[in-house]
Structure formats: structure tokens, C-alpha cells
Amino acid sequence: MTSQRTRNRLVERLIEKGVQDGSVLDAIRVVPRHLFIDEAMASRAYEDTALPIGYGQTISQPWVVAKMTQWLMSGQQSINNVLEIGTGSGYQTAILSLLIDKVYSVERIQPLSERAISTMAKLELDNIEFSLSDGHWGWAEKAPFDAIISAASPAELPMELINQLKMGGRLVMPIGESHQLLYGFEKTPTGVVKTCLGEVMFVPMKQGVEV
Questions:
Q1: Active-site positions?
Q2: Alpha-carbon distance 74 to 19, whole Å?
Q3: pLDDT in tens, 47-57
């Protein structure tokens, strides 16, 4: 259930669902998703579904990972660095690391951050920097970013994240509490352009840090 053939079937399902970016599909094809979840759930690793990773968090559904990443990559400007809000298991982080020169990833739950760092070391992905931090704050010391992606849903758009985007940069994140919508935001000289990308269900973006 962790074979390349199984991964290829997942990619085929994503193509059927409308994912077209070849580089995103290639990244999903090569990243071993089973390494990012508990061994007891490895047989479900290549289902197109979110799965629990402990601490009330989940590894995102592959289709959602692909959809968000594809939207980020489809802008007019090239992306050299990206900020990820919510490292979680590290699966989305790994996908981004194969596509973008530098990935900055923040996580508020220390054991999840440490586990993700360990997994990245095993995969020899060395273009990622991690921080234990509240996602609402972004990572001001490393800003500005070409792109920002969030795997947690705040009640409303944190303007601090828009402030940390470069002009022309893109932000993709769910927004809402009981009812969530996925939005893409593009920072332009005349303001922020918002695009609704559909209904989703993510964990809420909480305040503070858990150690």
C-alpha cells in the first residue's frame, strides 16, 4: 500500500478532479505520504482523504494540497520563497520544498514540529526552515514572501500575513469557523484581489504555542 503504483493511482485521481499542474503532480507522485502519518494508518496513506496525526490535527487531503499549491504556482510572478502556516505532519511542506527554492514553515504545536523536522531529515530535504510560533504572526524576520499558504482556518483574514507578502505575491488559505471557504489573495498596487476557490474543512487557526 506504500508502493509507487499506489502513489500513481492517487495522482490519476487528482487529474480526474482537475489538477493540471505537472510539477505539482510530479511532487505528489514522489513524496512518500505514508512517512508523514502513524504506521498503523499507512495502508490509508494514498487515499484522497484527510487523516488524523494527533493533537487534534490532520494531514490534509491530497486534492486540497494539490489545489492550493497549484493556485499559488499559477501566478504571473515566479516564487522563490514561501511561508507555510501550520507545518502539521510536514507533508505539504515536503511538496513545497520540491517546487520552491526556500520554504519557511511555522507550527504552534512543538511535538508536531519536531516530528516534521525529523521526517524532513530522513528525506534529505534541506531547503526548509522551521519555527515554533503562532501562525497569526507569520514570520516577520523572514518576510517579505513571494507566497504564503495556510493549513489552518482563522475566523477572518490576518492582515499581518498580507503585510508580509511581496507586491504581486499570493496567499492561499481557508477562512471561517463552522463554515469554511478556501480563498486565494493576490497583493496588487491597487489592493488585495480575492478569489473564492470553494468549500473546505480545515482545523481552526488557534492562538499561542503548545510545548
A1: 60
A2: 12
A3: 999 999 999 99
| 207 three-class SS | coil
Omega of the bond leading into 111 within 30 degrees of 0 (cis): no
Q: What is the pLDDT of residues 108-135, one digit of tens each?
A: 999 999 999 999 999 999 999 999 998 8
Q: What type of residue sits at position 97?
A: S
- pTM (2 d.p.): 0.95
Q: What type of residue is 13?
A: R
Burial class from Cβ neighbours inside 10 Å (0-12, 13-18, 19+) for residue 207 reads: exposed
Number of Cα atoms under 13 Å in the Cβ half of residue 172: 23
Instruction: Give me the sign of the Cα torsion angle 84, 35, 42, 25.
Output: positive
162 in helix, strand or coil?
helix
For the record, the C-alpha cell of 9 comes out as 493511482
3-state secondary structure 5-65: HHHHHHHHHHHHCCCCCHHHHHHHHHCCHHHHCCHHHHHHCCCCCCEEEECCEEECCHHHH
